[in-house]
């Protein structure tokens, strides 16, 4: 599964004014403003008549008539501009209004675009935060991709696989690495610094070859710690290591917390495509504790436990575990009868997964099958 992440920059648009400038418009407005009209010849004649006291009354009447006529004509010119002037003024007024409307419309469009860009940018920031938050939650995946250290007081997966191998004292006393190497669908009670496995991570663990190879190396590391070794990578078949007596005593016999580690490992196998490893390990431990007769015969024996376990062959290196009933918890994750609904439900409940998911196989195993078939 992979994360997908660009940012938009706001583009400032300039509005080009293709109309006349305000200075030109103001100049036209000034040109149309009412100004004192030039005196007409009639007005001049009127003044001369008025100033001449020697004229007759009839002349005075004529002059008054001329004055009235010229005054009326002058007033009409002052009040009512010519038609071309009105049209030009109207056109300029319309041009001004058009400019204002255009500017307002352009500003509105620009504001809408800026809001969209801002909204888009905010959405991208939210998505980035969500992706970052999501990736931070995928701690198990990030750890196995070597991008995150285990916690507390841990290290990167590659350093653990390379440098911790064979350091039995460190692997015994360090209580924070097991939850990271073998994650499951439940939260650890002993390490709050780790996260439970989620389905997205489990899918990636199964199909990612880099992670699958690292898982196999982690199994080799922990098997060596317990005094065991995987002798068949395809089936997960297990045998005792050369130093098994010492390692059995240090892990299974004297350190009971390792019993819970085994349970975690078995559950983990079922969650990440290595179910056949869980089946093989359960079978191996059953023989190491109960011998060839197996657990069921031992459990069916109604004699007291103190008698039963002492009758087990002393050659069985882990026979002491029969007194603790730890195998009852381990066998849940091993081989089951899929026609037995109770066994199926018990496995599903303890793995927090469906039987279909549990039966999926890691790409590590499918690749091994392909290689094996090619050489046959």
Number of strands: 2
Strand arrangement, major sheet: 1-2
* Main sheet overview: 2 strands, antiparallel
Average pLDDT, all residues: 80
Beta-strand proportion:
under 5%
Describe this structure in words.
Residues 1-79 have low confidence and may be disordered. Strand 1 and strand 2 (237-240) form a beta hairpin. Helix content is 63%, strand content 2%. The longest helix is centred in the first third of the chain and has 55 residues, at 83-137. It starts with 21 loop residues before the first helix and ends with a helix. Helix 9 crosses helix 10 and helix 12 (257-271) runs antiparallel to helix 13 (275-290). The chain has two domains: 22-118; 139-374, no CATH class. It has 376 residues and is mainly α. The radius of gyration is 49 Å and the shape is elongated.
Descriptive tags:
single chain; mainly alpha; 19 helices; 2 strands; 63% helix; disordered N terminus
